[in-house]
Design a protein that fits this description.
The structure holds 2 protein chains of 2 kinds. Chain A is mostly beta strands. Chain A contains no helices and 11 strands. The radius of gyration of chain A is 13 Å and the shape is globular. Classes of the chains: A mainly beta, B mainly beta. Chains A and B meet through strand 5 and strand 10 of A and strand 10 of B.
């Protein structure tokens, strides 16, 4: 099973700042990684697939990068609605696995 | 726009079977472009993929749950279901059904649509 490790566990940032979230896979997964956003009481929402392609309706301030084992989700300028928990997920191998999440909180 | 809705008991006794159904509205469950999955999230914790079913009944399960799990599909009712037997407190979680997209290079691939989730508590 591929383990996805996210860092940091919590990111304290102010609105307008740039946020950088990291995800590391325990094995090579090419660019077969997705990112999701989850707000309290809601299901996850797909943000990014293929490591760098934004899903339909996702604002351009969200961008993804990386390949192999190292991946990054960047939020260029945090808006109030972006404070949430973010998960990475690999779909290159079975079983599908998720990172443990990074909480982006208001500083 | 396709929507998914989970249904089932919110409380299950230890050693019994957890049964949930997901109803698909606004789209076809028989489209070959999608797989239909279950994912769970213990309160305050991360996400665990449980397994999927394809419209033709093909299934694939997480090895950690495979011995206790059955997932099935009823295309006439536009529903898919899961049964997890011999449950314990460790199975207490929010259970989500989700649609997994089949891309040109990976099939299935990412989860593009999720239900709202249903909390299932295992307790006597």
């Amino acid at each position: 099973e591929i383990v996805m490790t996210q860092s940091p566990a919590t990111l304290s940032q102010s609105p307008g700042e740039r946020a950088t979230l990291s995800c590391r896979a325990s094995q090579y997964v090419s660019n077969i990684v997705a990112w999701y956003q989850q707000k309290p009481g809601q299901p996850p929402r797909l943000l990014i697939y293929g490591a760098s392609t934004r899903a339909t309706g996702i604002p351009a301030r969200f961008s993804g990068s990386g390949s192999g084992t190292e991946f990054t989700l960047t939020i260029s300028s945090l808006q109030s609605e972006d404070f949430a928990v973010y998960y990475c997920q690999q779909y290159n191998n079975w079983p599908r696995t998720f990172g443990q999440g990074t909480r982006v909180e208001i500083k | 726009q396709v929507q998914l809705q989970e249904s089932g008991p919110g409380l299950v006794k230890p050693s019994q079977t957890l049964s949930l159904t997901c109803t698909v509205t606004g789209g076809s469950i028989s489209s070959g472009d999608y797989y239909w999955s279950w994912i769970r999230q213990p309160p305050g914790k991360g996400l665990e993929w449980i397994g999927y079913v394809y419209f033709n009944g093909v299934t694939y399960y997480n090895p950690s749950l495979k011995s206790r799990l059955t997932i099935s599909v009823d295309t006439s009712r536009k529903q898919f279901s899961m049964n997890l037997n011999s449950v314990s407190a460790a199975d207490t979680a929010i259970y989500y059904c989700a649609r997994e997209y089949c891309s040109s290079t990976n099939c299935p691939a990412w989860f593009d649509t999720w239900g709202q989730g249903t909390l299932v508590t295992v307790s006597s």
